[in-house]
Amino acid sequence: MALQCGIVGLPNVGKSTVFNALTAAGVPAENYPFCTVEPNVGTMAVPDPRFDKLAHLLKPERTVPAMLEFVDIAGLVRGAHKGEGLGNQFLSHIRAVDAIAHVVRCFEDPKVAHPDGTVDPVRDGETIALELIQKDLETATKRLEKSSHMLRVGDKAVAHEVELLTRMKAHLEQLQPLRQMTFVAEDQPVLKEVAPLTVKPLFYIGNLGEESLASGNHPYWEKLQAHARSEGFPAVPFWGKLEAELKELPEAEQAEFAGEMGLKESGIPGIVRAGYQALGLITFYTKVGPELRAWTVPKNTPAPKAAGKIHTDMEKGFIKAEVISFKDLTKIGSESEARHHGLLRQEGKDYLIQDGDVVHFRFNV
């Protein structure tokens, strides 16, 4: 199953345009609030030059790249946590994704109304952040009331839950996101049930206008970049409208059009890198029979767990992993030469998969 990034932001910031550019889904992207009501879902193959190079080197019959899923969630407005603008419905959609891609408007366009009348990336970013915090506060408060009642009537099993939710509520009342708190393993069952929004990894996408390409002047993007840096989040510039238009052209014409518009390179790989960074992900590769495949796992994943990503039987019956780095394999030229030169390592259950590993798992059925 592909990891999901939820695309969020205020109305009319270009979320659906960014979504179309990423997934070529062709969903409506009109100039009015709540153009998107039900979330649209689109999947894209992760751009990966290493995977392309391995395919050229190993010449498999089939290639299966890593996939990333984007969910286009309707615009949030002030008061969304209270239900404004169908906010409760939209916030529940965010609860289901793995990470949040927050699209912030960094362009002027008198034809595209801004809900606050002016463009201000920092204010807009803080508006969404506050709505997510307020929704988590509402959720934690309701859950705490229920758990406290259970504790009062003698259910000692919820004592830790009450203590944890009390801390969470106090933190949220200070208008701070829960990702700033420290959680331990004992907290995870409660967090899984409560599914707070502000523990999710987040990154910013600055949606820039074509006029900034021509002028080379990006004042709104610079403000957003500084704001993201102060919060410790990745931020990526993206010309959503232009990239979406490129996707509609035949591939042979895309480079020429991009050059005419002054777009030196696509921003899509940057968005994928930011998503991987936010989620703490790495990529490893397998070549089994005719198929070369890319897999995505969190950093510090043990080899048996990575094998289980392919099939649960491989994790249960794990014996060892034969591993060679992408760098060594592409330098030596083939798996047989790598084995001959001792570059193919035998790794056991404690080995942590590294980004770029090419792996063959040995296991008992």
Structure write-up:
The chain is of the alpha/beta class and 365 residues long. The protein has helices at residues 15-23, 49-58, 87-95, 121-152, 159-173, 188-194, 210-215, 219-231, 240-247, 251-261, 268-279, 303-310, 312-316, 326-332, 335-340, and strands at residues 3-8, 40-45, 62-64, 67-72, 99-106, 202-208, 235-238, 281-288, 291-298, 318-325, 345-347, 357-363. It contains 15 helices and 12 strands. The chain has a 6-stranded mixed sheet with strand order 2-4-1-5-6-7, with helices on both faces. Strand 8 (281-288) and strand 9 form a beta hairpin. The model is unreliable at 26-37 and 83-88 (pLDDT under 50).
Q: Quick summary of this structure?
A:
With 365 residues, this protein is an alpha/beta fold.
As laid out across the biggest beta sheet, the strand order is: 2-4-1-5-6-7
| Overall residue-averaged pLDDT value | 86
Silhouette: flat
Oligomerization state of this entry?
A: single chain
Based on DSSP secondary structure assignment, what is the total number of beta strands? Answer: 12
Q: What is the structural class?
A: alpha/beta
Low-confidence segments, given as residue ranges, are 26-37, 83-88
What proportion of the residues form beta strands (DSSP E)? 15-25%
What fraction, in percent, of the residue positions are helical?
40-55%
CA gyration radius, whole angstroms? 23 Å
Q: N-to-C terminal Cα separation, in Å?
A: 23 Å
User: What is the count of helical runs?
Assistant: 15
Order of helices and strands: EHEHEEHEHHHEHHEHHHEEHHEHHEE
Largest sheet: 6 strands, mixed
